[in-house]
Amino acid sequence: MILKSDVLPEAMIFDLDGTLFETESVLLEAYHKAFDRLRQEGFYEGETPPQRLILSSLGMLLEQIWEVVLPAADSLTRQHANDWLLHYQLELLNSGKGRMYPGVLPTLRRLKDMGIRLFVASNGLEEYVKAVIRSQGMSRLFEGLYSAGEFQSATKADLVGRLLGDFGITSAWMIGDRKSDVEAGAANGLVVVGCQYSGFSGTGELAGAQYRISAFSELESLLP
């Protein structure tokens, strides 16, 4: 039995990768293309690092991701890896690839119809975050798309705090699949909904979330 909230939130703030967007639907192909390009340009030798490294790093800030994937690489190599990964992700998104999790679009439309303000807060790059939302035809649903890449936020908690202040929001839910989402919600006094369907979360990573959902559409069932 899922317990309902007693209060309808003024706003909902969503993580992107692993919460709204099935990241691997473009990430893995772009990942392999990026390393092919790095080898061609002489920045990298050997086999492409295992996919599990990039997948387990989703939700981290970019510099943290490359510390996991390329721990022995210098800053120039990591920057080239980052640039080519973004390039190929955008290329794939613009070609029509990529998909949201089941139920995301109709659920968001109903939430907006209820008068709930919708936002995205992601640790990703600005171009990527906006390209995902635009490619899925969802731009009109969101009042703001906040990314660590655009605002150079040190933590997701800082990013969410800035969003709340910019829009004058006093009551909101934070919805995400990683520890950084739980921490961002807790630091800003928000209700946290942990998403368990992506498979990216580690054991205990969603501890502290007031609610947990196994499918995006379950979000509506938490509302009064």
From TrEMBL:
The keyword Hydrolase appears for this protein: yes
A GO molecular-function descriptor: hydrolase activity
Domain of life from the UniProt record: Bacteria
UniProt KW Hydrolase keyword: yes
Name assigned to this protein: HAD family hydrolase
Keywords, comma-separated and alphabetical: Hydrolase
InterPro entries tied to this protein: HAD-like_hydrolase_sf, HAD-like_sf, HAD_sf, PGP-like_dom2
Matching PANTHER family: PHOSPHOGLYCOLATE PHOSPHATASE
One Pfam family of this chain: Hydrolase
Coiled-coil region: none
